[in-house]
Give the backbone structure.
Amino acid sequence: MDLYGRDLICTQDWSFEELMAALDLAAKMKRDRFNPRWTRILEHRTFIMFFYNPSVRTRLSFEAAMTELGGHAQFMTPSAGRFKTQKQAGETIEDAAKVMARYAAGIGIRILEDKVPYYGAGDEMLREYAYWADVPIFNMADDKFHPMQGLADVMGWAEWYGEGPGRPDYSALEGKKFVLTWASGALARSWCSVQEALLVASRFGMHVTLAYPEGYDLDPEVIAQVRQNCQERGTDFEVVHDPEAGYEGAHIVYARNWMSPNAYRDGVFHKQEEIEKALQYPEWILTAEKMARTDNAIFTHPMPVDRGHEVTDEVASGPRSAIYDIAENRLHVQKAVMALTMGNL
Amino acid sequence: MDLYGRDLICTQDWSFEELMAALDLAAKMKRDRFNPRWTRILEHRTFIMFFYNPSVRTRLSFEAAMTELGGHAQFMTPSAGRFKTQKQAGETIEDAAKVMARYAAGIGIRILEDKVPYYGAGDEMLREYAYWADVPIFNMADDKFHPMQGLADVMGWAEWYGEGPGRPDYSALEGKKFVLTWASGALARSWCSVQEALLVASRFGMHVTLAYPEGYDLDPEVIAQVRQNCQERGTDFEVVHDPEAGYEGAHIVYARNWMSPNAYRDGVFHKQEEIEKALQYPEWILTAEKMARTDNAIFTHPMPVDRGHEVTDEVASGPRSAIYDIAENRLHVQKAVMALTMGNL
Amino acid sequence: MDLYGRDLICTQDWSFEELMAALDLAAKMKRDRFNPRWTRILEHRTFIMFFYNPSVRTRLSFEAAMTELGGHAQFMTPSAGRFKTQKQAGETIEDAAKVMARYAAGIGIRILEDKVPYYGAGDEMLREYAYWADVPIFNMADDKFHPMQGLADVMGWAEWYGEGPGRPDYSALEGKKFVLTWASGALARSWCSVQEALLVASRFGMHVTLAYPEGYDLDPEVIAQVRQNCQERGTDFEVVHDPEAGYEGAHIVYARNWMSPNAYRDGVFHKQEEIEKALQYPEWILTAEKMARTDNAIFTHPMPVDRGHEVTDEVASGPRSAIYDIAENRLHVQKAVMALTMGNL
């Protein structure tokens, strides 16, 4: 297997074996974080981080990843450039991508739904960058997918059901029950993290329960892919619309707010309306009472957590909360992916 | 003495011996800036610089310090994240601090009075970060204190009364007369630098004269601490309200503008009002004539200098101006503190 | 020859031999980009990039250059500081430059015409920084000149008329015909790149044809210098005002929009007016038809290219387009200049 030069825009674009190659390397790197085996892999190399949308965790973890691999990550925002859009003259993606590839060994892009004219346009832009640039393009969260988060999630789950931090057991996830539930919240969140989590959970052999109020459907194409993943692994996929349903027998509970498919109308993001609507479902919060009905499930969340809306403090800061381990795993999976695709490892 | 893991939020939080450990290492580092003994201490490590308020000197000197210690400093602003405040949903300090500590070996925060609801709230926020993060938290200037500036100041004074750059003599400061005077100015400045300077000067055994117009009191708790420091060292502390008083016999003169205690009323920073009021005291400027009445005193200032308001060009660019040496010392004291607290030195 | 400590504000400030020293080193660095001979030259050193105006290519290439030389480039914008201007109190250039020189081994500044009160004020500011700072000051594009672009241009031309990437032949440029033509466009561009290109082309022994519509004169002092350069090299310099003229026998065609001398009136940048005016000259676009009348000329442009206004896609993406190679050369010439001036090489 040779991952040199590969893009990573969605975990579904990579074979299971390719994902496992990255995850296995990530565990080795986590067990021995500053070993000289890793700290010279991208020595003197540049990684460009292109943030159309701001971020703390993604910025910190990618920039630290490059520092730990011996290289340097540059932080860029689109206001730093003059890019061609429907409304203004400027540089084409062809030109931008070809030039960046002369300077950098890889490029990461983050672009969410509020920066694009329609759902999916962000993901398309990443794929256009990937077409023109002859260095790897990484999705640092777009309007559809968030592959690094998906890898960090599954690594964390496999650590909690394996032998702990740095000692994941991926086979232990097979046949476990994964519940992903919509949650109330005041942040009108993107679909990328939850869609990626569903794809990853289904590919790693888990039964998947998706719970949300009527009116909060996710992308039907992604859901069809999740269904197919489950079918291929011989697991169950079910959808429920009751805030109390689905917890029985659950091993992993993922509770997070996301916006409705109506958030964007007429090219406008109706953010305040979405927030007000979401706050009308206070019963869609993950509580210790609900967790008590599971099979001693762990709590997972891509952070930032909207405590008090999505989940109670008792659960988020409780003994079965995997959130900080998973946040840390962002660093390790990104190091592994960059080492394999940019580092000729 | 083991400073590994220690926060630095105010110099008063550290013992005199601990401060001297940092200052002695800073002098060694200044004398031999790029020696391999220092350049690998934080190799591949990340330091997070969190700037609620912008800065040139602090940013440059912290980022250069990490580069010179072999690591990397990330520049972050709060607009890059979604932090919970009284007015908006977002991430708690608990979550932010715990995650950042997974990626970074240390965190610096700068937050001044215009970004907090009441005086002291910035300092409290730093202490909350320190509570949750298990890596060192450094104060890069908050609404009360500015410890790195205080260390750079005293190092500079001890160099000028010692054997020059990189050869400070701290015992030479004992019994010297330190005059800190309010000055006119158009920048309505924070209290942090001057309060830290008073704490440091009094702990290093100097007689302290504090001069300001009626109505420009500093934090009474800090002043009480300065008084106590002087008492413990057996030195004098006096307050005068005359722009001509206090210069006789002075060895170090620190002239700087600061805002009045009334700058914040009803949660609003009355900046323009403060500036107009301060400009009504043009006689509170440090001149060569005043300096001529001292015991050949040096001029000290944390910069940026508001020339023409706080001090004349003749003094600021004159032969007894220590300002550039002290600015440079920011780099060296920060390197020393980071090496000791983050670097397991 | 010793370039240690030298500023680079315009290529005309350096002797031909000094420019060749930088260009020869750039070619060596390009041929063997990550050789340890280069990667330690600025180890642990800091370069400050001061961007009054944003940029993608300049930022990326300078920051990558420092990473590849072993050091680190800090990204700063003036909003990060409180600088003295005619309208506000703040820090003087004297103080800013002297302090930065304590932290950094070199300083780059980018300031274009929209950030200064009159044409030439940006270039003057750079020279004031150079006066006060005792580390090299580099022009990263100001209102008059863009020396790194000029060096990258001539390196690219010499590669295309030499033996290809990394194998330039500068003598092959002597006696060649260089055509620099104004082009339509929607970006109202600065004069710095084209003025620098004219200076460089004339110094390297090329015949120079400058084409533009009446009303688009460049700086008469720069044009006088170009004339003198041509005279010294015994080459021709001509000005034409016909969009079809000058192409016969051309070897290098540089087509780019620039603003008229009337763009700034009463201290205001009439940007929209400039754009509207420029768009009234659609015949001033570089086409394959025009290129067919040359002596198989290459197309050169400093990027970003305003495709469809300045040049057709057919030319910009065609087999004789040197634009990506020249963009890459920014990295190599900057590495060479920084190594020679900051690195004591």
